[in-house]
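User: I'm writing a short methods note and want a consistent example. For Amidohydrolase-related domain-containing protein, I'll paste the sequence; you return only the C-alpha cells, no commentary, since I'll be parsing the reply automatically.
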Amino acid sequence: MARGEAPADLVLKNARIINTFVGEIEQGNVAIYGDRIAGIGDYDEAKEIIDLQGNYLAPGLIDGHTHIESSMLHPARYAQAVVPRGTLTVVTDLHEIANVCGLKGIKFVIDWAQKLPLDMLFMAPSCVPATTLETSGAQIGTEEVKGLLTSPNVIGLGEVMNFPGVLSGDEKVLNKIIASQGSVIDGHAPGLKGKELNAYIAAGILSDHECTTLEEGKEKLERGMYLMIREGSSEKNLDALLPLVTDNTYKRCFFVVDDRSCSDLLHEGDIDWVLREAISKGLEPIRALQMATINTAEYFRLYDRGAIAPGYLANLITLTDLSQLEIDMVFYKGKQPVHLAISLSPQLL
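Assistant:
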C-alpha cells in the first residue's frame, strides 16, 4: 500500500502538512491504512478521500503531564471534553484518586481508558501518601509500583514529589526509583538548585514541571532535565518560562497542563489553549506544535506518534488557521470520533 500498488483506506489530499521533524510545511496527500500512516505523496486511490483544500494537517496533540481527576470528570466525559480539541494522547499520574482509594481507583481509570478514542497513558504514582504528615485512604509502596509498571499503558514512574526523601536517601523512595529503572521517571522539585539538584537528577529523574522562574528553569535545563512548561487552571508558568525556549533548547521543552478544571476545559480548552497562549506571546506556531507533539513523544519514548510519517499512528488534526490553532477535524487511529458511543451505567456515576 505504501508503494502505491494498492488503495489506501483513507487519503487526506491537498494538505499543508506540518512536519514536526524539521519544522516545515509541505504540500501533499497522506495515505492511511488501518490505524497507521502509510505514506506522504501523490496517493489518489482509497476507499475514502477527503479533500482538505489546503487546510493544515498536524499530528494529534499530546498532554505530557496532567491529573485528570482535577477535571472532576469521569474518564469518558474527560475524553468528550478534550478529543474535539485535538488532544489524542494524555499522560496522567493518578495520584489524586490513588490517595483516596488506592489501586482500585487506578484500575477503574485504566479499565475505562481502553474504551476511549484517545490514548490515555499512565505514570505509576510514586508518592501515595504525598508525605508522612498526610492521612490518605491508601498507600502505594514499591511492590505496588512494580505491579503497576506491568499494567496496560503504564509507561513510567510519576512525579517524585518527595525530593527531600531522595536527597536524604530514604529507602522507600529510592526503592521505587530503582524498581522503575529503564522507564521514564518524572520529577517534582520546586526551587531545588545547586548540589541538591545534582543529587536529585543523579537518582535517575528526568524532568520537572514545577519551575516557576526563569533562573530555575535555566539551571534545570543546563543540568540535563527536560522542562515541562506548565499552564493549567491553578499554576501558570508560561510567562516566566517561555523566554527559555530558543533554537538551542526547544527540543528539551514541552507543554503540560498539570490540571485543568472542567470549566476551563469547556470555556478555554486543553493543551490546545496552552498552544494558543504561547503563540499569542510570540512563539512561532510550528514550534508550539512541536512542543505538544514530537518533543513530548520523544521524551516518553513514544516513537509511534508526534509526527506525520510512514508507520506512525494516524492520530491527526486539521487546522483552518495555524496562528489561531483553529481545529476543524480530528482523526484517531485513522477514523473520525464524531461522538463517543459510550453508555454510562448508573453505578459508575
